[in-house]
Amino acid sequence: MNRTVRVDLSDRSYDISIGHDLEIGTAGAIPKNCRAMIISDSNVEPLHGDWCRKKLDESGIESDTHVIPAGEESKSLNTMAELYDRAVDLHLDRSSLVVALGGGVVGDLAGFLAATYLRGIRLVQVPTSLLAMVDSSVGGKTGVNLARGKNLVGSFYQPVEVVVELSTLKTLPEREYISGLAEVVKYGVIRDKALFESLEGCASELLSRNMELLVDIVARCCEIKAEVVGDDERESGTRAILNFGHTLGHAIENVLGYGEWLHGEAVAAGMAYATKLSERVRGLNSDESARIISLVSGLGLPADWHGPGGDLAWQALRNAMATDKKAMGRIPRFVLADTIGEVTFGCEIPEDVLCEAYGMD
After folding, report:
1. Which of 45, 97, 283, 350 has a 20 to 30 A CA-CA distance from 69?
2. 174-358: CATH homologous superfamily?
3. Catalytic residue among 55, 66, 186, 225
4. pLDDT tens-digit readout, 136-189
5. Catalytic residue among 72, 176, 183, 253
6. What are the strands of the beta sheet with 62-68, ordered from one edge?
7. How do residues 52-89 score in pLDDT, each as one tens digit?
8. Does the annotation mark 183 as catalytic?
9. Is-catalytic flag, 239?
10. Model-level pTM?
């Protein structure tokens, strides 16, 4: 059964459609007979490009497609320059539509294009990775990486529609699918103990991509994201809880080189590290700490934050965390768990505790 989740942001509200055989381009905010620029990548477009164009055509929307190389390396200012040139070539105007067909990289790039081209044109997110479905396609964060840090250039810009066509997960590579499960676990830790417990009980079904189960899991994750974004759209407060695991996770991606570890893999390691910090700083029960790390590893995600072969140097990671966009005065801030389902954001950790938890006695 298909599901709909509403993101309530006053005049910027929109629906997330979740399920099978969904329509694209039917939101009331989309003008009739407009033109669309589909942005996709070299992995996704051959698999789902024709389907997306057909769905847009059924909604009366003509489209052109621009394909970028797959991978985190494309999330750059150079790629943005190419997208701006393509938008000009296609004569996009303020009645036009940008459609993001792909994972988080495509969604972030397409979103930033929509936010900035002509000072803003309409955006539709059509996520095809699990990670994008439950996280990056919802909430309006867009942007690109710089050499010195992840997501350091970007904006908040909400889509007019999010279409989560779960059948696209059938073609998602196993590693990408498992990477997305990190964000699913995150929602249980930060906001919903019942969700966390259900993940513990259905891990094998989740790993086998049980579509009936995924409708409910993805919808619940989207509901949590919608609730948090509705309370704090621009991350001035509680939206920061969505960054559980991301402080060290982003540093790992930066130090290893973007693409060496997938985003969800780095976040999983970051959640394991944040869990250990939570024991020391927030008094997280050791049994609950063990359950979090056990679920992460049981889903095939890395629960060791030292990198391949244990060769991730602490000082390099610490320097990367100092440039994280959430840092203040080069002091990183963490989201830490008080108990499963409740977290505290904005935690500043003494340097000796950061080192000790990493294994630098």
Report:
1. 97
2. Dehydroquinate synthase-like - alpha domain (1.20.1090.10)
3. 225
4. 999 999 999 998 888 999 999 999 999 999 999 999 999 999 999 999 999 999
5. 183
6. 3-7, 14-19, 161-165, 122-127, 97-102, 35-41, 62-68
7. 999 999 999 999 999 999 999 999 999 999 999 999 99
8. yes
9. yes
10. 0.94
